[in-house]
Design brief:
Order of helices and strands: HHHH
Distance between the termini: 77 Å
Radius of gyration: 25 Å
Largest sheet: none
Number of helices: 4
Shape: rod-shaped
Helix content: over 70%
Length: 90
């Protein structure tokens, strides 16, 4: 009788853990998909990141922090070697 109660209890705990894990995975998946749709697509999101990076590099250049600006510009040029605006700033 005691073994049977332990087995049923263990199965119940395992079921609860699986349900909670599934809920967490589903909520994480919904969150990531809502972020990608709220930005209007990956091309627009990438352009926003690129523009923000260029603006930050300009701020660093104006402040005289040339190495940090170059690091940002290098990262942009690694992603897109044809980025003329990043080349000009470099």
């Amino acid at each position: 009788m005691n073994k049977r109660i332990l087995i049923i209890g263990g199965i119940g705990i395992l079921a609860i853990l699986l349900i909670v894990g599934g809920i967490l995975l589903l909520s994480r998946g919904c969150r990531s998909s809502s972020v990608s749709t709220s930005t209007g697509g990956s091309a627009e999101y990438n352009e926003t990141i690129r523009q923000n990076t260029l603006n930050l590099a300009l701020d660093y250049l104006e402040a005289g922090d040339f190495q940090r600006a170059l690091d940002l510009l290098d990262r942009l040029l690694i992603e897109n070697p044809n980025d003329q605006e990043a080349r000009r700033l470099r």
